[in-house]
Fold:
Amino acid sequence: MTVIVVMGVAGSGKTTVGGELARRLGVPYAEADSFHPKANIEKMSSGHPLNDADRAPWLEAIAGWIGEHEPNGGVVSSSALKRRYRDVLRTGGDVWFLHLDGPRDVLAERMKSRSGHFMPPSLLDSQLADLERLEPDERGLIADITRSPGDIVDTALTALAKEPK
Structure:
């Protein structure tokens, strides 16, 4: 089965949409933040963006989770900002990306209003600068985050149902 990777920058709604998508599909959900080494969390908490070397073990751990869950399906979140990061995730197995995309002001407001998250709003611009949108040859869907999470999940499920088996 396909594992769905819910991707996007901080504040895009990965946890909300990913959790609902997994619930509706009846498959496990994993939050990407749980795969970060402690050093990554500390670095981001102090306002410093991660570099490719910081992200490598995190991406490999998520790819491992994908491989473990491919037989029965699953949903995992990951910023998956760059195509080469998505390429690492694809090494885990069959994946389909749900890219949550939206305006900077909406993302910034969401980040300011959430509490208890290690990612400070000051890192949003670095994530947006790194973001490489899904390309036409990548399996998946780009969804507008100004729509409700339920609408996004409905659209994703419809798109998935149309995927070749």
Q: What stands out?
A: The chain has seven helices and five strands. Residues 140 and 160 are 8 Å apart (CA to CA).
